[in-house]
Specification:
The chain is α+β, with helices and mostly antiparallel strands. It has 2 domains: 241 residues, Bira Bifunctional Protein, Domain 2 (BirA Bifunctional Protein, domain 2, 2-Layer Sandwich), CATH 3.30.930; 94 residues, Anticodon-binding domain (Rossmann fold, 3-Layer(aba) Sandwich). 38% of the residues lie in helices and 21% in strands. It is built from 15 helices and 16 strands. The strands form 3 sheets. It has an 8-stranded mixed β-sheet with strand order 1-5-6-11-10-9-7-8. Strands 13-12-14-15-16 form a 5-stranded mixed β-sheet, sandwiched between helices. The longest helix has 18 residues.
Length: 424
């Protein structure tokens, strides 16, 4: 094992890349604020049972992808593979539903799944999600779709589409479950091993399978929308009405079920033409039974999650979120000795005022220092020599237009005003 190689499925975010992440995170926070969502942060690991009960034993995540281990207290612990179940646990434990409803929360942070690494998909990945808890109104379903679309539009992303379906509630799904078992049983031998095992436990999971042979079998499978109860059918009609009112284009996808067992009624994905076959840049839906399943009171809820790496990949594909070159506000050049000490004092004083200041640490020649200022893309350069120290005055040069302005080396207000103007 090479100590200089990162673990497979992880990624380093280096300078030049991190700025794109920070800009995207700022846009996320801005959109969430406009929709009234507040941030919540949960631990990186939870009790394993939270995900087993919340996500479902028959899902790929629980069966194949979770990072699970026994801690020193012989408790089964899992690195969080998704953000909804931990958020729901925190909602219950911290009694967040005691005030006005719905409660609108968002999260942003690393998740962990042991899956095959590919473009924009890692074993440690970053996920942003928004969750609204405490209302069954179909308008909230559509607001949950509109929020990420507003984020994508604020980033300048185009070419994305919304796919939507209703998977009903436990009551109307019971009849659909029996129809699926009836349909798939004669084709059992044509299914992959995972689907063969899920056929009796949770046949709807077969519709989420990515194996091509299973796709061939499911082409003629019955559609869930034919089995929706009156309440679920009316709810879905309400969702589509609000989507039309918001002028949000969408495609009905009767095979869309999502990979988590906690979903009820509305499920949806946003797909991008920039990502090939693995084209989802976010997905979500309603999960009216999850809070009760985890141990809380019956509470309707709906949410959405975005893989940040996937979103950045789509944005890069369209040359969005490109940053302008940045650099220090000012580079202070010196001749060593007492002039270096004076330069260090000025740099420290202006850093305390929030400016990005740099100077030479190696007593290099003035020519080498000026080259360093250029490489750093410094907007201004201040040169301090013995004459400047003796007179307590120097000249600040604007490296972009060559203009120079005299300054007092004792007047930090004047220096801040001149070199700080670029920061604005």
């Amino acid at each position: 094992m090479a100590l200089t190689s990162r673990p497979r499925g992880t990624n380093d975010i280096i300078p030049g890349e991190i700025e794109l992440w920070l800009e995207l995170e700022e846009k996320i926070r801005s959109v969430c604020k406009a929709y009234g969502y507040q941030e919540l942060r949960t631990p990186l690991f939870e009790h394993t049972e939270l995900f087993q009960r919340g996500i479902g034993d028959a899902t790929d995540i629980v069966e194949k992808e979770m990072y699970t281990f026994m801690d020193r207290g012989e408790r089964s612990i899992t690195l969080r593979p998704e953000g909804t179940a931990p958020l729901v646990r925190a909602y219950i434990e911290n009694n967040l539903g005691s005030g006005a409803l719905p409660v609108k929360l968002f999260y942003y942070g690393p998740m962990f799944r042991y899956e095959r690494p590919q473009a924009g998909r890692y074993r440690q990945f970053t996920q942003f999600g928004c969750e609204a808890l405490g209302s069954a109104d179909p308008l909230l379903d559509v607001e949950t779709i509109a929020l990420p679309l507003a984020l994508y539009e604020s980033c300048g992303l185009s070419g994305f589409e919304v796919e939507i379906n209703s998977i009903g509630c436990p009551t109307c799904r019971a009849a659909y479950r029996e129809k699926l078992i009836e349909f798939f049983t004669p084709h059992r031998d044509d299914l992959c091993k995972s689907c063969q095992g899920r056929l009796e436990r949770n046949p709807m999971r077969l519709l989420d399978c990515k194996v091509e042979s299973c796709h061939v079998v499911m082409r003629d499978a019955p559609e869930i929308t034919e089995y929706l109860c009156t309440d679920c059918s009316e709810h879905f009609e309400g969702v589509l009405t609000y989507l039309d009112a918001f002028k949000i284009p969408y495609t009905l996808n009767s095979r869309l079920v999502r990979g988590f067992d906690y979903y009820t009624r509305t499920v949806f994905e946003v797909v991008s033409s920039e990502l090939g076959s693995q084209n989802a840049i976010g997905a979500g839906g309603r999960y009216d039974g999850l809070i009760e399943e985890v141990g809380g009171k019956p509470t309707p809820a709906v949410g959405y999650a975005v893989g940040v790496e996937r979103l950045l990949l789509a944005l890069k594909g369209q040359n969005k979120l490109q940053l302008s070159p940045t650099g220090p506000n000012c580079y202070v050049a010196h001749f060593g000795g007492a002039t270096k000490l004076k330069a260090a004092q000025i740099v420290q004083a202006l850093r305390a005022r929030g400016l990005w200041m740099e100077l030479d640490y190696g007593d290099r020649s003035m020519k080498a220092q000026m080259k360093a200022a250029n490489r750093l893309n410094s907007q201004f350069v201040l040169v301090i020599g013995e004459d400047e120290m003796a007179n307590n005055r120097a000249v600040v040069r604007n490296m972009e237009n060559g203009q120079e302005e005299p300054v007092s080396l004792e007047d930090m207000e004047q220096l801040t005003k001149i070199v700080g103007a670029w920061a604005k």
